[in-house]
User: Fold these one by one.
Assistant:
Number 1:
Amino acid sequence: MSENGAFRRFFRPNAVSAASAENPLQSLLAAAESPQPQETATEPGAPVGATDQLKREMVEQRVALHRFLLDRVNLSFLDTMDGEELVEEIRPLVREYVRDRNLPMSSRELDALILDTTNEMLGLGPLEPLLKDDTIADILVNSYDQVFIERAGQLEETDIQFKDEDHLMRIITKIVSAVGRRVDESSPLVDARLHDGSRVNAAVRPVAIDGPMVSIRKFSKRPYTLERLVSGNSMANGMRLLLTAAVKGRKSIIVSGGTGSGKTTMLNALSSQISGRERLITIEDAAELQLQQKHVCRLETKPPTLDGRNEVRQRELLKNALRMRPDRIIIGEVRSEEAFDMLQAMNTGHEGSMCTIHANTPRDALSRLEQMIGMAGMPMSQISIRQQVASAIDLIVQVERLHDGSRKLVSISEVTGMENEVIQMQEIMAFRKLGVDEGGKVRGQFIATGIRPRFLEQVAEFGLQLPDEIFDPSRRLS
C-alpha cells in the first residue's frame, strides 16, 4: 500500500500530478479526481472503486500514525492532557512522520491531520466530528465501513469509516469501559453513556451478524425546557401551561411513546418545572437525564460480573431510593417488575414522581404497566393491580415521532379512576393530523377536547390558576 496515496485529501493538485508517473496509485488518484463519463451501475462482484479503496487506505494510515505516536508520547501524561496540550505535544512528531514519508502537505492540511490524530487519541476517532455537530441527533454505526446520521428527522449516509472491525471494537471498548461496563462475546449487548450524557447502545458478535454496531442518541448541550418545545412546535403553549401546573402541583406523570419519539427529552423538559428546593432521585439503566436542579442524586444499574453475580437492577435501586428521603423519584424508563415498587412509592407520599414507558397510546401504556406489575410475582388480582395504577397515576403524556421525522406531543390524558374493572381516562388536549403538505411535512393542529382536568382544584391549592380559554374546544391551541 502506498502511504502517499493514503493521504489523498492532503495533497496539493500539482503534487499529485507530478508524482503520478512514479507512483501507480497516485496515477489512479489523478484519474479518480478527473471528470469521468457517466457509468452504468456497478455489477455484482466488480472491483471496489478507487475512491472507496483510497478512503479505506486513508483510515488505515491514520490508525498507523496513531500507533506511531503512541510509541513516542509519554502515555502516563496522556490522560492529564486536554486537546490543545496534546496538539502541541504531537505537532513536531507528526511533522517528523510526514517528512520521513515525503508527504507534501500544506500547513492547513497538517493541522487537519493533527486534529484527526488527536480525535483518535483522546476522543472517539472517526466519530468525533459527528459528536461535535450540533445538528446531528443520532449516530448509527451499522458496520465499520457504514455510518448513518439523523439530521432534522431524516437519515443520511456519511463517508465516515473505521479501518476494520478491530478499530471499531477499540472505540466501543473505550466508550463502555469509561462507565465501568464491558462488551465481548459473553456479554455482546451493552448500554452506556458518553461524558456529555449522550446515550450509547452497542451490539457485537455473535448477536451482531455483520460485525459491531453502535447507536448514539445525542443530547442537546442546551437543556430542554417546555418553552423550548413550544418554540420548536412540538407542543402548544396551552399544553405547556397545563403540564407546568401538573408538575408544580405534584401530579404523577408517565411519558409514553415509541422508540425515538422524544420521551427522555419530554421528561427532561417536565423536570425543569420542579422546584429547586426538592430532593430528586433519578434511577436509570444508563444515566442520561439532564435535570437542572442542584439537589439531584443519580443512581444507575450495574450489569452482572463475568460469573453472573453482583448485578444491581432498577428494582433494587428503587427500594434503596425510598430510604434516601426523596421528594420525587424519576425513573428513566420502566421496563419490568420495578413498576410495582414505583406505584407503591407514588401511593405512599412520593407524589409528583415521573417515568417513561414504551407504548403507542395512553391506553397501551396502562396495559403495559399492568403486565410489568405482574412480573413482580406479587399475589395480586388484576383488579387490585388496576386499582393501584388508577390511584398512583394522574397524567399520561403521549409523544410520537411522525413519519416526516418531527416529534410531537400528541395527547395529554388524565386517569380519573376505576369504573367496574376498567381504568377510566379522559383526553384533555391532543394533536390532530390534517394531512401532508407538498414538501411531505405533516399538517395538523393542537386542540383542546373541552374537558377540564379534575386535578385543577388540587393544583389551585398551590396558587396555580389556568386560563379557561386553553380548555375551549372552539379555539385552536396556540
Note: The first strand starts at residue 136 and ends at 143.
Number 2:
Amino acid sequence: MAHTPIKKVCLVGANGTLGSVILKGLIQADCFDISVLQRSNSSSSSPSSIPRILVPPELPVEDVAKALTGQDAVIAAFPLGQGDQHLRLAEAAFQAGVQRFIPADFGSCDASDPEPQKYLPLYRKKTLVREKCEALAVQATQHGSAFSWTTVICGHFFDHGLRDGLLHIDFDTRTAQILDGGATKASTSTLRRIAEATVRVLQRAEQTRNRAVYVQSFNPSQLDVVAALEKAMGEPWHMQHIDSKPYLEDAQKRLKSEEPQAVLDAIEDIVFVLGALDADWTKRDGFAMDLLGLEDENLEDVVQEVVAAYRAEGSK
C-alpha cells in the first residue's frame, strides 16, 4: 500500500517527563498537525494551541479507534503500567488506519534482550507490546492496510536520570555508585535527543518502517561521567564500587517485599544496572544515528547543564 508523508500526529502522555519534551520537539519541528489524546477524567493540561482528543479512561479499543481515525501517527509516551492499555492503543491505531505507531519502548535497555526479560515483568510487558505491533504489521501487509511501527531504544534518560538520582549519582554528597569497575560503555540519551529521534523517525517514515532504531546522545562509561562531573563542579567525587551480580540478586529478593516502596526501589536498582551494563547501541545492527541524521552531543556540555540546574535549584 502506498504511504503518504506523515502529517497528523497524535501524542498520548503529553504531560509526562518524556511526553512533554516530545510534544515540544514536535512543535519545534513545525511540520506536523499535532493533537493530544487524553483520558476524559484527566486533569492534565496541554498548550491551548494543541487540540485535545478525549477518550474513556480505560482506553476501550472501539472508542479510541474512532478518536484516532484520520491520524497518520500515534506516539505512546505514558508509563506502561499493566501493559493492557498499550496493547489496546496499538490495536486501536491499527483499526483506525494509522500509518505509524511508536510504542512506549523508550528507556534503559532493549526490553527484548534475554537479560532484561529475566529480571523484570516491565520488560516482558514491553516486549508483548512490540510483538503486538509486529503481528499487526503482518496483518496490515495481508490486508493492504497502512499500519506500521517503529520502536525507539535510547538507553537511560541521561539528564533526567542524572538530576533525579536514577543513575545513582548523588549531587549533595558528591557520590556515585560504580558498577564492576565502571569502564563499561553504555549508550544514553538526553530527553531532547529522544524527542529529536522521534521526530526524525516520523520524517523518515519509509526508512524506519517496522523496525527498532537505537539512538544515543553519547556512549560514556560510568568513569567518564564521574570525570565530567568532577570537571564541571571543580572538586573530586567519591566512588562507591559495587559488584553487579550480588547487587542484582539482592534487588530480585526485594521485588518480593510486601512494602510497595521497597519494590519500586528494587525495580529502579535493576533498571540502573541493566542500563549501565547492557546498553552499548553502537554494537547493534539497528544503530540508527546516521539513518536519522543525528550526531552525538557533548558529554561535558550536558553534564555542565545539569550541574548548573542543580546549583540554581540550591540557590533558591
Note: The CA atoms of residues 30 and 102 lie 19 Å apart.
Number 3:
Amino acid sequence: MVREALESYTDMDEFFRATPMGVMYWFFQRREPFLAQKTMTKWSRDRIDDYVLLPATPGFVTRTECFFVSHFWHSSQDPDPGGKYLQLMQHDLEQQPWSFIWVDWSCVPQHPRSPEEEAYFTRVLQTMSAIIRNSGFMYFYPPFEPRLWILYEVAEQALTSVGVLPETPDYQPFIEHVREMERVSVRPTLERHGYRCTYDGDRDFLVSWLELLVLLKRLSIYVDDIRRMLDYQTWSPTLIAILHQTWNGQLVQIRRFEGVVE
C-alpha cells in the first residue's frame, strides 16, 4: 500500500503538495550515509537515495529501528560546522543496532525552500512530536543555553517514556527544568530561565505542546495512555476532540482547539 501510494505521485513537488488529509511521510536518513558523512549533510533532492520514506502512521517508526537526534544549531548556515557533534554521535550510534535516523538539518528541506517544500516543512513541524515519541533519542549539547526547542524535545522524550536517560552534564539542566515545569507550570519556568526561540511563531506551538505534556503527566495518567492520546492527536489532525479511556478506567477528553483537558 505504501509503495502504491508513493508511486501515484508524478514528481517531488506533487508529493510535497499532498493534502494534509492524506498520509504524511517522513524522510529518514539511512544508517550507512549517516555514519559515512564527515559533516551533517543538508537535505537535498540530489541525495534521495540516502533516505527511506516512513509513513506517519502507527508501527512504521519504532525505537528499535529509528533514532531522533536532538542538537543545537550553532549557525543558521550549518548547525554543526566541522562535524564535532556529528562525530560524537556517530561514535555512540555505530555501536548500536538501528536502521534509520532523523536529523532536522538532513531530513527536512532547509532555507531557501520552494513553496512546495515550505508546505511540506510545515507539516513536518506539526507532526514531528511523533518522531521524537516513537524513536530512540540521541543528543550531544554544548554548555547550557536556554533553547526552547531543546527543552521541548527533552520533555517529549522524557514524559512519554517509561525508562530514563542517563543524566549527563549536558542533559541535566533540561531535565531539571522539565521537572520544574511539572512542579510549578510551564510559562513561569520558561520565563525564569530565559528560554527563547529563533522564530517567534515556533514559541506558540511549543509552549502549547509543553503544557499538554505536563498536564497529562500531572494528572497521573499512565505513560502508555499518554502516548496513545498524543499519537492519535498526530494521526488525526482534524479531530476537534480526542476521547480516550485509560487503563485504570479514567475517561479523558482533549479538546485540542480550545486547549482544554477533561
Note: Residues 115-134 form the longest helix (20 residues).
Number 4:
Amino acid sequence: MAHSLTKYASLLDELAAAGYRFHPIRDYFAAPAKQPFVYLRHDVDRLPERAVTMAEAEAKGSIRATYYFRCDKHMRFPEAAMRRIADLGHETGFHYESLSRCKGDSDAALALFERELAACRSLVPVDTVAPHGAPLSAASNMDFSTGIGPERFALLGDATGIDFTDILYLTDTGGTFGSPYNLRDRVAGRELPGPIHPVRLAAHVIGQQETRLVLSCHPERWPSGMLALTEARARDSATNLAKRLLQHLRASDFRTRAR
C-alpha cells in the first residue's frame, strides 16, 4: 500500500546517517559512485504535483534524484512540474511506453520513441530514460529497452541497463518494497526476497551490509496528508486487484492454448 512522504524522508535520513550517498541515475553511467551508495529513481506515472513536493523535500537535504516523466498520447508532458524539478537540480528523464502504445509493433514503437523523446527534450535535459511497466498491456515496454540503442539517441543509458548482479534493486511497484504484485518492474539480478515495510527497509539493508542500492519510488505513492494517503491506498488496492484478475486470465489462456 501507499505510504506517507514523511516515511520516505525518514528512510533517506536513516540511510544517510549510515553513510550512504545519494545519486541520480545518470551518475551510474557517467561517474560511478563510491560505496555505500543509493541511486534514486522516481517514475512519475501520474499526479506530478506530488513529484514536485518530493523533489523539494529532497533538495532541502541536498539530495539529487532522477525523475522520469510520461507523456500522453498527444505528446503532452507535465511541463511545469518538469521545469520545477529540473530547476531544483534533479535529473529529468523520459519514462517511455512506446511498445505498449504501439501494441507490440517494434518498428512503430522506435519511431514513436524518437518523437516523444524529442518532445521531452524540448522542455528539459534528458540523459537517461526508463520504461513504464504498463502491467495491464499485452506488450511489455521492458522488452523494448534492450533494442533502443542509447548512443543512437545521444543518451547515457536506460535505467534498466544497470548491472544488478551486484546492486540491490528496491522498488515500491505493487504498493511496497518487495511486493508480490510487481508484475513487470523486475531486474535480472538482485531483489528483495519478500515484502518489507519502508520503516524497516533501512535496517534491513544496513543489517545485510548492502552497500550498492537502486531505490525506485513512485511519488504518487508517497503523499502528504491523510486524505491523499487514503486515496493512494485505495488506488493501489484497485490496481492490485486488476493485476490479480489479469494474471488469472492470462494463466487460463495459457492453459487453454497448451491443451
Note: The radius of gyration is 18 Å.
